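Troubleshooting log. The previous run stalled partway through. Resubmitting the same two chains, unchanged.
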Amino acid sequence: MKPVIDILEEKICAAMAADTGRQDCAAIVRPATDAKFGDYQANGVMALAKQLKTNPRKLAEQVVGKLDISDICEPPEIAGPGFINLRLKPEFLAERLLEVNKDSAGLGMEKTSKPKNIVVDFSSPNIAKQMHVGHLRSTIIGDCICRILEFLGHNVIRQNHIGDWGLQFGMLCALYEKKTEEETKKEKGAVDYKVLADFEEFYREAQELSNKDEKFKERSRKAVVGLHRGDEMWRAYWEIIVRNSKRHYEIIYAQLSVTLHDDDIRGESFYQDKLPGVVGELKKKNLAIESDGAVCVFPEGFNNKEGKPLPFIIQKSDGAYLYATTDLAAIRYRVNELKADAIIYVTDSRQKLHFEMLFAVARMAKWDKRQNTEYRIQETGEKPQKVEFVHVMFGSVLGDDGQPLKTRSGENVKLKDLLDEAVERAKKVVEQKNPELSPDKKEQIAKAVGIGAVKYADFSNNRTSDYVFSFDKMLAMDGNTAPYMQYAYARIKSIERKAQSKDVDIETELAGVTELNLAEPAELDLAKYLIRYGEAIQAAAGDYRPNYLTAYLYELAQKFSVFYTNCPVLKAAPGQRPTRLLLCDLTARTIRHGLSELLGIEVVEQM
RNA sequence: GCGCCCGUAGCUCAGUUGGAUAGAGCAACGGAUUUCUAAUCCGUAGGUCGUAGGUUCGAAUCCUACCGGGCGUGCCA
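Second attempt completed without errors. Output:
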């Protein structure tokens, strides 16, 4: 089903076009700013009147005259300088609600008519280091975007561009070799993964040795060369390190309910053999030139402090490649092999300039189009479809001091510690609020609430701004938090449980609902909001902003609470109860869908 | 210096191609509990939307200047 707002937009646009003969009309339908104006308002007539230099009220009248939406709305009203106010007909609302209710999987959402292959690049932790707060936002925002796009019917290709290559692997492999030798002397055989359990320690040890032990340093250098050459032994050590390191973040992904798996990993190492080709081709196309010994591309419109062209360095003067080179190789792979129609990068805003330049260079090289398609395009006359590049950026997670969140000793906060603490704190609250629950239940609730709180707090902030991390705030029962949302859900589930003891057969009663009896203001308000779920998802998808979705869910939960306090369900009169049961059920399904399917936050039956 | 982002209630933040009287939550104050889970709800108070101009029927939103903050800015990622 198309969202009501889109149907109105189309119909009013058509009326505007019919009246003025212009094709580029925009009705700009928005939810009404005040309930007294109705349910929706169209603002576009005023802008159009300005362009046409005519009286906006008069134009509004003409447009309304050409408009037939009597199946959806009461007669439109023109107000103020030229607003068109729209009020849904109760019959339409009821009918719509029943339809949404019937669609158990999609809740009335329409799948896209143009499914695209969308590559989403997110999370990207570094091998041999634990995931820390810095990885939180990319991981969960990226995951949420994938879930939403998939729900809309797109083919999402997740790409975890892990840091599994670079100079530090020389010393890690050298240390691994050293440890293996030591273990062999002790007749224990090869080092097993338990030795690598504490990667922080392993990394630190390698660094220390590197600093003070010349022989070790030399061995590290040999390892780097060996890795580049593809020596079997070094490659094997590298693989062991990578494989064991991956376990660490697989645990975190599971804990966060993040839909990233082994198949989605395409790390830096994957692109290594493609880098000379990237540089070579850019040189051949005369886009890359040597400057101060480094190979650079100078995309137009980027200047440095002296106002001179800013370089996008793709090869250092010592011949080494950089992340810019890898990113370019990744674009080619994604466009040509993964057949991407769009590539979305979920990284922090500090990399904005890098991505702007990356995209510019890719376009200069025409790598935003698939190879070997030119001739077919000429034959068929199709326009070459350009791949869309999007940088979905986000701000930093800050501590109380307004600085990026660190531990007291100034280290990055490990994601595992942070999540464990959230669960621990949630557990205390559960313990206090509901001591009679079984230990298993308490544990399960604490996990859902604790992890949910961390994720929800992140989602509910505008992703582009920094936010201050606060356990107390995210675990608060009041306000736009995960616990509030989960509580709203649990309350509905409680009604359902209670129904059994009162001999109310919800299933039978719901199955028999063919028409609704929406009378109370709280019922109407909730009903009108329930049919707008699709709008919220589209808004969130359109701008890749999860906070539009959390805002909707929060408001929905609030409207439900109002309904809950004002409208008894189980004790309702026989003529009212089916409608109220349906409102409860649909609210629960919407909250569950939003939280668990789209945000990856668990709901609980009891709290 | 230059570029990008930001400045909204005491605090933390929303605000969807410019729309009607700028919205939430927290904190403060007042009220509601024989319950369908009060982890809730209702109400009150709180704002020259950084400052000053400009564009127009209409600006938190667009333009200009300034003040204040963050980030970035040639061989890290």
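Takeaways: DSSP finds 22 helices and 13 strands in chain A. The first strand of chain A starts at residue 29 and ends at 31.
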